[in-house]
Design goal:
By secondary structure, this protein is an alpha/beta fold. The chain contains 13 helices and nine strands. Helix 1 links the parallel strand 1 and strand 2.
Length: about 350
């Protein structure tokens, strides 16, 4: 079966705190590590009250130290917010401490609003093409790993720790831009189907078609990130999805509030227009009992030729959230990691 992985934004719920959300992330990582999930990625978002994930590189180290075998990475580092040398050195440190278990996923968006993005970057000169200097930063990051051309002003600088390579690189996106770029430079690709405004098939297949082997990768590896909730039955899954549906509705109108409790979501007085909006967004949140969800996701894998599925599950009750990942792992046929591993 196609490997399953986890994307975690460290959701903040209405009856909890951002600090608790970070502890919930650690607990979930330990839980799925024993279920056979392949990767655990952390997102980068700033100044948002509904997520507590501004520093994935810190959480990567914490999670890798608290787990046994799962790969841990960024989903992703928003490269325009960071100096490429700092990204290179931080991920070299992680790779040195946890060799073979770290991934470096890179994003082009700021992960926040325009004013906060300015606060993150205001002491840096914009790129020649205006404020979008992602390609310049990406090229520099790759030079820190593979070596600068002769005569480059940074060629004499040794990134630390010396002798440690960067972990595998993935470009992340919600359109076909990153798909094409990832294929052209030969790295992995992750498509954010859970919030993209376009169907996943076109960018996923374009990446595979355009892929050229380079030192970054010999063959394509396409990860499809999807929002999914697995209940004991289809009806229970729909009930558990109420919080995520209300949260999405609010986010689409600019309200980044903590994840509502299930009780609040079930009691919410939806208007006819809001119900219609939720119905239009059902393809962004995959909901069902184990067999229903397995069939839905299997079809999605077939249509996109995904090499891996990355699951993001927004449920405020942490026990129910753990159960959702457990049910999906069992339905998918993941092999649990043995105690002797």
């Amino acid at each position: 079966m196609t490997p399953l992985s986890v994307l975690d934004l460290s959701f903040v719920s209405a009856d909890s705190t951002p600090a608790q959300a970070l502890h919930d992330t650690l607990a979930l990582a330990r839980h799925v590590d024993g279920l056979g999930y392949r990767r655990y990625w952390l997102a980068e978002h700033h100044a948002l009250p509904n997520v507590a994930s501004p520093a994935p590189e810190i959480m990567i180290g914490q999670i890798a130290a608290a787990t046994r075998s799962i790969r841990v990475g960024s989903g992703g580092i928003m490269l325009p917010n960071h100096a490429p040398l700092m990204v290179a050195e931080r991920f070299r440190v992680l790779e040195a401490l946890f060799p073979g278990r770290i991934d470096l996923g890179l994003g082009r968006a700021p992960g926040t609003d325009g004013l906060t993005a300015r606060a993150l970057r205001r002491r840096e000169a914009p790129g020649q093409g205006g404020n979008d200097d992602f390609l310049d930063r990406l090229q520099e990051l790759l030079f820190w790993d593979g070596g600068f051309p002769e005569g480059h002003p940074f060629a004499k600088i040794q990134a630390s720790p010396a002798g440690v390579p960067l972990p595998p690189i993935f470009l992340l996106g919600s359109s076909d831009y990153s798909a094409q770029l990832a294929g052209e430079i030969g790295c992995g690709f992750g498509f954010a189907q859970h919030f993209s405004g376009m169907p996943a098939e076109a960018p996923m297949l374009a990446y595979r078609r355009l892929f050229r082997p380079t030192r970054l990768g010999e063959r394509p590896h396409a990860i499809l990130a999807v929002a999914a909730i697995c209940g004991a039955t289809d009806a229970e899954a729909e009930r558990l999805a109420a919080s995520a549906r209300l949260s999405t509705l609010r986010r689409e109108r600019g309200e980044y509030r903590p994840l509502p409790s299930l009780e609040e979501a079930l009691a919410y007085p939806y208007s006819d227009a809001e119900r219609a909006q939720i119905e239009r967004g059902r393809d962004k949140l995959h909901v069902g009992g184990p067999e229903t969800l397995r069939a839905t996701l299997t079809d999605l894998v077939a249509r996109t030729q995904a090499d891996e599925l990355m699951i993001v599950t927004a449920i405020p009750d942490q026990a129910a959230r753990h159960d959702s990942y457990t049910r999906l792992a069992q339905a998918w046929g993941l092999g649990a990691v043995s105690e002797a591993a």
